[in-house]
Amino acid sequence: MLHIKLGLGVVFLFLFGSFSAFATQDSLMIAKIYEHSFYKGEAYENLRYLTKHIGHRIAGSAQVAQAVDWSKGLMGQLPFDKVYLQEVKVPYWDRGAKEEAYILGSNQKLNVLALGGSVATPGEGITAEVIEVELLSDLRKYGDKVRGKIVFVNKPWDESLVETGVAYGLNSAQRSRGPAEAAKLGAVAYLFRSLGSGIDDYPHTGATRYVKGIDSIPAMAISAVGANTLHAALEEAPHLKVFLRQHSAWKGEVLSHNVIGEWKGTDHPEQIITIGGHLDSWDVGEGAHDNGTGTMGTLDALRTLMALGYKPKHTIRLVFYMNEENGVHGASQYGLQSKQNGEQLIAAIESDAGGFAPRGFDIKGGAEAVAWIQRSWKPLFEESYWVSRFLPGSPGVDSGVWGKHYPGALMFNFRPDPHRYFDLHHTAKDVFEAVDKRELQSGVAALASLLYLIDTHYEALPN
Ligand SMILES: [Zn+2]
């Protein structure tokens, strides 16, 4: 049936015919993009290869080098004008053998993961009493008692927030600053309740950092179940001891790469629209939602436009950034290089919030531009495709970093449904099976549609 093949949005347009000719043309193109993505999308199968054949890929690892080569080959199969690697030096942190943690005496095992960047436990491990707080600032009242102890920060996730990224942000400084704060008071290790939604026995890793001049103490995340177990045990026996052992270490600098594909524009080839996401992941699970879906999704968005015979007016550059998770060196390098080369980076789309059903985009741009997008583009998405969030907001982490050199660039941060992302973010649960094909391809269509709109209407946008 024709009306189904064309998509509901087009039917609405024919029925209510109140849109301009441009809007109709845009609606037709977007309907074609969605149809192609659902019928002929390739993001899901590419994601299968990345996750199942290459697997997790922390910056500096052999797996990430394999992911770089494979991605370059994948881009090479498409009609890009140029596919190349951009050199980036990255610090390589290695987890080493599996961590161990248990409550002494009871031998109650606790599931933990070293936090990214952490040092190893000294000698055969650490055995010490525990001081539990919700907030680092609560440590002050313990003063000297912190010396020689394990500091355990046990702040539960705020389950009331639909915007789970905010819940993450509320507590992430305690992960990054915690070890240094605890070490200042003489603590011997830092145990952090995992930054994730839901209660299960999977610890969530993530980056932490030390402060120069303060002792570096081992830092690890404990699962929510483990944190509740330890909390209950401490209520019964406040002087119980916990054993911790981990083997993680920095292994120096490694040469790695951003992977870049360029599709030259016809009218304004010197003006560049960047789209992409980070290729590296944490070293647990398979880096499926974070960020296999972001890289394979943006690649497939470009492939979709190519397959539909679209000719971009501006140069479109696909960038797979290296090392977002523990340094953001890839995005820094991209920004520096672009600035040195005098390039005009005018707009960006980043996908790094998972591959769940698309809900919209956060926009960093002038108020008039955002209002224009809300008025002109949002109606093209919201009724037919259930994509309705077009709000002022922050760019993605990588675009934000290179964007410092390009304050005028219009930036879009892809926003899939946030409910389940932090159930699996940075855990062993972030695997291919956690991604739904239809949701992923729906996201690809939203990305391709937005890319098409930016490229087609950039000159009409108010500054
Ligand atoms: Zn990510």
TrEMBL record:
SUPFAM superfamilies: Zn-dependent exopeptidases. Its main location: endoplasmic reticulum. It comes from the Bacteria. Coiled coil: none annotated. Residues 1-23 form the signal peptide. Pfam families: Peptidase_M28. Residues 258-442 form the Peptidase M28 domain. The keyword Protease applies. Keywords: Carboxypeptidase, Endoplasmic reticulum, Glycoprotein, Golgi apparatus, Hydrolase, Lysosome, Metal-binding, Metalloprotease, Protease, Secreted, Signal, Zinc, Zymogen. This is Carboxypeptidase Q. It comes from Sphingobacterium tabacisoli.
